[in-house]
Amino acid sequence: MKWITRERPKIDRIACPWLIKRFIDEDAQFYFVPFSEVLAQAEALNAIPYDIPNVEFTHYKDRCSFDYFVWKYKIEDPGIHTIANIVRGADTDRHDIASQSSGLWAISAGLAFNIKDDMELLEKGMIIYDALYSWARLLQKQKHTQNPTESLLLDVYKKFLKQRSTEKRIPLWAKELKEIIQDQIDTNLSLSLQEVSQSLQVHPAYLSREFSKYFDSLSFGEYIRKLRIEKAIKLLESSTYSLSEIAYLTGFSDQSHFTRIFKKHTGLSPSIYKKSKIKRKSDPNE
């Protein structure tokens, strides 16, 4: 039998040939051509088209082509029915159907990206489905960690020992982040979590969640405001800039915003803070 489908196969168009070779016709031949040529080439080669619209061997409702082959040829093997669920989930982006579907999609997409020749892609894909079939028939109940005591010890390590050991060590991203903030605080006072997460190649949600552990129990925004206030204090103590100028130089939107945040951090307004500093400097007995 000859079978033909679209070029650049990933899920269904490799799973189906594997099923045909292993359970229907071990001498079957397969052809991959551009989508627009499938029907014409099928007629010329006397091949059966599959996994394209408006042919017999295709998707039906929520079922993919692999499901149809299993039904059509009355394949009752439980391992194949397990694989059918995985293939359907991967091929229709329904990874909730089987927990293995997302893994099959990831491997198939990577394989197609790395291998440009469709026949070589099919050859390598057959190996993957042979392995998946062995797992489906014989290994589903087997766990990677076989020793139950070993598994328990690993759980203890992950939950307690590892957590305690990492609490004392500052991760590399936190050290790098401290350097980034230190380097940019004088020139980029509107530094954002999104910007630094891109620089560190750390997801912003993770960075936001973990930040306070290594930065004085403050959130990212609170820590940046603290540094801006510290810079403002230095300017108040050592410069003749007006409050509006200091507000601008420390990245606040306006003087009133600067005053409100400064008072929240120090208990004094910037003007009172500056006057008290001047008074202490002028009074030697202070």
Structure description:
Strand 1, helix 1 (12-24) and strand 2 (29-33) form a beta-alpha-beta unit. The chain is mainly alpha-helical and 286 residues long. It is built from 14 helices and three strands. The model has no long low-confidence stretch (mean pLDDT 83). Pfam families: ChrB_C, HTH_18. This is Chromate resistance protein. Residues 175-276 form the HTH araC/xylS-type domain. InterPro entries: ChrB_C (IPR018634), Homeodomain-like_sf (IPR009057), HTH_AraC (IPR018060), HTH_AraC-typ_CS (IPR018062), Tscrpt_reg_AraC-type_HTH (IPR020449).
Characterize this entry briefly.
This protein is mainly alpha-helical and 286 residues long. It has helices at 12-24, 38-45, 65-72, 78-91, 101-114, 118-139, 148-167, 172-184, 193-200, 204-214, 220-238, 243-249, 255-266, 270-282; strands at residues 2-6, 29-33, 48-49.
Write the layout of secondary structure elements.
Blueprint: E1 2-6, H1 12-24, E2 29-33, H2 38-45, E3 48-49, H3 65-72, H4 78-91, H5 101-114, H6 118-139, H7 148-167, H8 172-184, H9 193-200, H10 204-214, H11 220-238, H12 243-249, H13 255-266, H14 270-282
Helix pairs in contact: 1-3, 1-6, 4-5, 4-6, 12-13
Report strand %: under 5%
Question: Mean pLDDT, rounded to whole units?
Answer: 83
Order of helices and strands: EHEHEHHHHHHHHHHHH
Largest sheet properties: 3 strands, parallel
Strand sequence of the main sheet, in spatial order?
2-1-3
Overall tally of domains: 2
Measured on Cα atoms, how large is the radius of gyration?
A: 32 Å
Using DSSP, what is the number of strands? 3
Low-confidence stretches: none
* Total count of helical runs of at least 4 residues: 14
